[in-house]
Amino acid sequence: MYDELKYWYIRDHKLFRTLSMSQIKQLCIITGFKKATKGEIIYFSSSDLPRIFLLKKGHIKIVTVDEEGNETIKDIIQKGDLFGELTLETDNQVNEYAKALSDDVTICSFLMSDFEDLLLRNPSLALSYTKFVGLKLKRIRNSYSNLIFKDARTRLHQFLKDWAESEGIKTENKVVIENYLTQNDIAQIICTSRQTTTHLLNEMEENELLQYNRKEISIPDIRKL
Amino acid sequence: MYDELKYWYIRDHKLFRTLSMSQIKQLCIITGFKKATKGEIIYFSSSDLPRIFLLKKGHIKIVTVDEEGNETIKDIIQKGDLFGELTLETDNQVNEYAKALSDDVTICSFLMSDFEDLLLRNPSLALSYTKFVGLKLKRIRNSYSNLIFKDARTRLHQFLKDWAESEGIKTENKVVIENYLTQNDIAQIICTSRQTTTHLLNEMEENELLQYNRKEISIPDIRKL
DNA sequence: CTGTCATTGTAAACTAACTGACAATTAGTG
DNA sequence: CACTAATTGTCAGTTAGTTTACAATGACAG
Predict the structure, then answer these.
(1) Which of A130, A147, A191 comes nearest B88 by C-beta?
(2) Distance D6 C1' – B56 CA (angstroms)
(3) Where in the numbering of this chain does the HTH crp-type domain appear (chains A, B) (predicted)?
């Protein structure tokens, strides 16, 4: 029964919809599970064999730490996202780890080598996967080019729009986002200081562009951003 | 005889080494060629069927133009690089084009649909291609995260290091780079103003970290950057 | 209910980098 | 070879955003 659950977890991802049960089994025999609560650090066990991860539930951030111990956010992973070495190449960057942002994080993983075997046997899956990585590439490139050229205000607006787009619950033009990020997190994502972010958020609240609190962000009219 | 040349052009790319002659033919029947000289604009003919491009010779930059007509450099493509829609998804962003940076630009291209067919029939090629796209993703992510957090000076240093690494001719610790970029191009790549770039380059020349001219950049000791 | 820690709010001094404006130099073309 | 356009050099004024520092608020554990 527990085994059944495992399969379902993987099968649920749109990338794996085309797979047969036996192919899923091939991956899942070695599937690892992990649960985490808020603030918990999840290492990409570099000692272990390289793995690909799939976030089933919750939110996590991928973080790197530089020589001086400064955390920088590399990516925010949402439910349904694949992460880890998408290049299918092993990389021994030890100073990179994931951190749970919500209390109900569930991750499953499988060996990269098994995944590669599967791709070789299933060209259409390989094609889907390539498109998936390509899409990720495009998303990252776009968000970065937004980040770099515009000022902090525009960057915050753009970030909120993107966030609302991908996760917000929309009714008419009003959008409500579950806020699992601190202002400091947001600051890091849009590459500005915590103070500037606080300032801008308060400014937007004064102009009635949004209501901010630690649980949720509510945007009365998304078109005005 | 001309046909033979065509095949060779594609076969030369490391991605295609594993292909049989007939598979190459399948791609090449519809291969398009293009030559360009410095400054020439090459459109990703959006009216035409979507294509994948391979830069055989020279250097080009991928550029987007925003509403106000400002050019921003999205990518620099070097000899041997594949470019175009790596996502294998059509995208109707018309405000994106390529511009030749050197006088001897040669591009060949093939239809995306043909490429997809080939990937489906050739799983190991699909896997290689996936890794290729993944690598591109990693490269872009790294270069961006370098760009964003550091100041202009560090960014320029990092850029020069990367450039020297990928294209420079190294003897001992001295590196010579063929300079096909203007200071304005460099400024756009490292996201700063043209004046700041000029200032920093001159500063580095004073400190004998490099010698700059329009033809080449010579770095006496790459470790000092 | 209270103490503690994380998060958010606010302000002043400081600085890197941008903008605009113009001059000097170099490359390419007829 | 001279003319033109592109590239590079230089400067002063301005500004967005950082830094430092501390206060206020909220959340959570015992």
Answers:
(1) A130
(2) 28
(3) 150-223
